Amino acid sequence: MINSHIHLDFDSVKSPSKTTTGIIVPSTGKDNWDNVISYCTNDNNCHFALGIHPWFVDNHQMLDLYSLEVLIEDEKPVAVGTCGLDYIKVKDRNKQRYFFDEQVELATRFDLPLIIHSVKATEDVSVLLKSYSKSRGMIHAYSGTLQEAEILMKMGFIFGFSHNFSNPHAYKLHDIVKFLPLDSILIETDDHNNSDELIEVAERVAKIKKISVEQVIEKCEENTCKLFNLT
Ligand SMILES: [Zn+2]
């Protein structure tokens, strides 16, 4: 079982459960790039991504994008991220858009997938991604609408589902999973510290899709390996 998005470098996040066979550890910005890299050193099942999260664009300058580019070239992350747009938490939309645009450009140049955070900004995220025909990746902890998911799916993007989704009352998200093909679904625990949550998410997908949990785990593992080019 692969966890497609877990902040294992955070002190608040415990180790993944024993049944977890692989993890993707995204970064949030320059302050933890070195941490995620060293966390995954000497562990073939741990893969890091490098990026600047929209929550932290205020701590970054344009020059940091150059450092990110150099680091991507030297350290070979499996993805660029987390990056994206958050119109609830971050007021400065222009700065967010600038940093997101630059990171999409970097990802396409290095032929890497993106790990995208999008909150109340999915329409703008889609428009920006559309302007880069080679962009690909995952929208992690998806929170947009069904219509927006359909647009992104047609563009080849896939979707991560996390603890919000395993809530039995998250009807909107459940409808989205019902609509999406299993090929477009990833499971994750993000910054939550309960390692059993990954299986809870898989169980909820299985229930909605009316298939076995094993099938969900196997397919989501395959989807993660394909997207991040894991061998
Ligand atoms: Zn995250």
Please describe what this structure looks like.
With 231 residues, this protein is α/β, with parallel strands linked by helices. It has a single domain (2-228), classed as Metal-dependent hydrolases (TIM Barrel). Helix content is 44%, strand content 15%. The protein has nine helices and eight strands. Strands 1-2-3-4-5-6-7-8 form an eight-stranded parallel beta sheet. Helix 8 packs across helix 9. The radius of gyration is 16 Å and the shape is globular. 44% of the residues are buried. Zinc ion (ZN) binds at residues 5, 7, 26, 82, 190-191. Residues 5, 7, 26, 82, 190-191 line the site of zinc ion (ZN).
Helix and strand arrangement:
Blueprint (H helix, E strand, L loop, with lengths): L1 E2 L18 E4 L4 H11 L5 E5 L11 H14 L3 E8 L6 H17 L4 E6 L2 H9 L6 E3 L6 H9 L3 E4 L1 H4 L4 H9 L5 E3 L9 H13 L3 H16 L3
Parallel strand pairs: 1-2, 2-3, 3-4, 4-5, 5-6, 6-7, 7-8
The site of zinc ion (ZN) has 6 residues, from loops.
Overview in brief:
The chain has 231 residues and is α/β, with parallel strands linked by helices. It is built from 9 helices and 8 strands.
